[in-house]
Amino acid sequence: MPQSQFHLLKTKRFLPLFLAQFLSAFNDNVFKNALVILMTYKAGEKTGVDPRLLVTAAAGIFILPFFLFSATAGQIADRFEKSRLIRIIRFLEIPVMALAAAGFFLQNYWMLLAVLFCAGVMSTFFGPLKYSILPEHLKEDELIGGNALIEAGTFLAILLGTILGGILILRDGGIAWISGIILATALLGWLSSRWVPKAQGGATGVKIGWNFAAETWQLVRHAMTQKDAFLSIIGISWFWLVGFTFLAQFPIYASGVLGANEEVVTLFLTVFSVGIALGSLVCNILLKGKVSGAYVPLGAFGMTAGIFLFWLASPQPAAHTTLIGFSQFIGTAGGWEILASLLAIAVFGGIYIVPLYVIMQTRGEATHRSRIVAVNNVMNALFMVAGAVMTMVLLKMHVGVTEIFLLIGVMNVPVAFLVRRIVAARRAAQGEA
User: Fold this and answer.
1) CA-to-CA distance for 146 and 131, rounded, in angstroms?
2) Which of 74, 217, 221, 418 lies at a 20 to 30 A Cα distance from 8?
3) What angle do CA 343, 304, 278 make, to 5 degrees?
4) pTM of the complete model
5) Domains of the chain, with CATH numbers?
6) Pick from 28, 73, 15: which is nearest to 186 by CA?
7) CA distance between the termini of the chain
8) Is 204 exposed, middle or buried (0-12, 13-18, 19+ CB in 10 A)?
9) Is the pLDDT of residue 433 over 50?
10) Which residues touch 132 (CB under 8 Å, ≥6 apart)?
11) CA 197 to CA 204: how far, in whole Å?
12) Over the stretch 49-107, which tens digit does the pLDDT of each residue have?
């Protein structure tokens, strides 16, 4: 029986990468949420621009590099030695966060949006590296556990960074605190990256193209020939559409449906992030280290059931004169049912997502591994944008946020059956037990 995945945190071949990724995700979200809060409450009077437009623009600016540079990032990651590239990217985060600190002190929102774009560029180039280097440093029966830890750590880092950035930025001395945190975290991330073990040499024959549209399309076409890897990419991207929709609509759901304040929004974010982390860690127990999609259908059906229970537990929207906080929400009828169903969605989401990442890493060509991950980044971004557009259109049509959640759950049903059919066919073809 394989060891617990936590033994990897004691190894030099995994811990430095885990820390570099955790600190990177934490820093991104401290910076992003601090900027969003500032733009929401302060930027209007400073810039004369509607804060809602600035916040929407910020979301687009961070995700834009994934469309522009993912193909090039994948080519570079396959071309050169990966640990060195990781150190370079994490080092560049230090001057970028120094610019962010300057932007906060100067209250220059255009400068901060430029920094946000740079942060998106670094995430774009880091993504193919962190996932494609794992199979080089971990044994096959460690990949499920290693990916589970990466996913769990990432969601907890997102949670901590989001909460900290939002809590501190508007307090007295908040800008100084945020600036110090993002600079210190960038420095720690670089120091961690210096201990990432050297990977195999890059594929020297890889040509790096700069026509992002043509290169992206070429990589997608190649990924489509790697059937298992590409189907995993589609499954992963669907998960991000579902997760992104829930996370983005929590504030509207809390205020408009429950009549609750930001404390309840933070509670939902906490439950969702912890649930994803728990589900990710459970994967290694279920699969016993085996690279298999056997439990992906369970995750998909579990998410659907959780969404349906979430819809049943949700009250009808009503006008609210005052907003309730954490303790009042817990005491309301249906409060615990809402939290339990939200936790179920997240736990099953973690069970669903981790095996797909491992299949993506291992079932494609090793020489194209980073470029496969780059295609995944592009498709993730595309699905999240599609989800955001769909949600905006439905809200414009006066469809309630609770009904939007239910629609996502209904759309997840055919996805769950498709995943079950694909997994059954692959297991039959490969003789899995």
Assistant:
1) 10
2) 74
3) 30
4) 0.86
5) 1-197 (1.20.1250.20), 222-433 (1.20.1250.20)
6) 28
7) 16
8) exposed
9) no
10) 77, 78, 82, 361, 369, 370, 372, 373
11) 20
12) 666 677 778 888 999 999 999 999 999 999 899 999 999 999 999 999 999 999 999 98
Q: How many angstroms separate the CA atoms of 182 and 190, rounded? A: 12
Rounded CA separation 227/209 (Å): 24
Tell me the one-letter amino acid at 25: A
If phi over 0 gives left and psi between -120 and 50 gives alpha, with beta otherwise, what is residue 259? Answer: left
Contacts of 382 (CB under 8 A, 6+ apart): 67, 237
Place of tokens 């699905």: 383
Task: Reduce the secondary structure of the chain to three states and give it as a string.
Answer: CCCCHHHHHHCCCCHHHHHHHHHHHHHHHHHHHHHHHHHHHCHHHHHCCCHHHHHHHHHHHHHHHHHHHHHHHHHHHHHCCHHHHHHHHHHHHHHHHHHHHHHHHHCCHHHHHHHHHHHHHHHHHHHHHHHHCHHHHCCHHHHHHHHHHHHHHHHHHHHHHHHHHHHHCCCCCHHHHHHHHHHHHHHHHHHHHCCCCCCCCCCCCCCCCCCHHHHHHHHHHHHHHCHHHHHHHHHHHHHHHHHHHHHHHHHHHHHHHCCECHHHHHHHHHHHHHHHHHHHHHHHHHHCCCCCCCCHHHHHHHHHHHHHHHHHHCCCCCCCCCCECHHHHHCCCCHHHHHHHHHHHHHHHHHHHHHHHHHHHHHCCHHHHHHHHHHHHHHHHHHHHHHHHHHHHHHHCCCCHHHHHHHHHHHHHHHHHHHHHHHHHHHHHHCCC
In angstroms, rounded to a whole number, what is the distance separating the alpha carbons of residues 358 and 149? 12
Which one-letter amino acid corresponds to residue 342?
Answer: L
How far apart are alpha carbons 55 and 354 in whole angstroms?
Answer: 31
Find the length of the chain: 433
Q: What is the pLDDT of residues 268-286, one digit of tens each?
A: 989 999 999 999 999 888 8
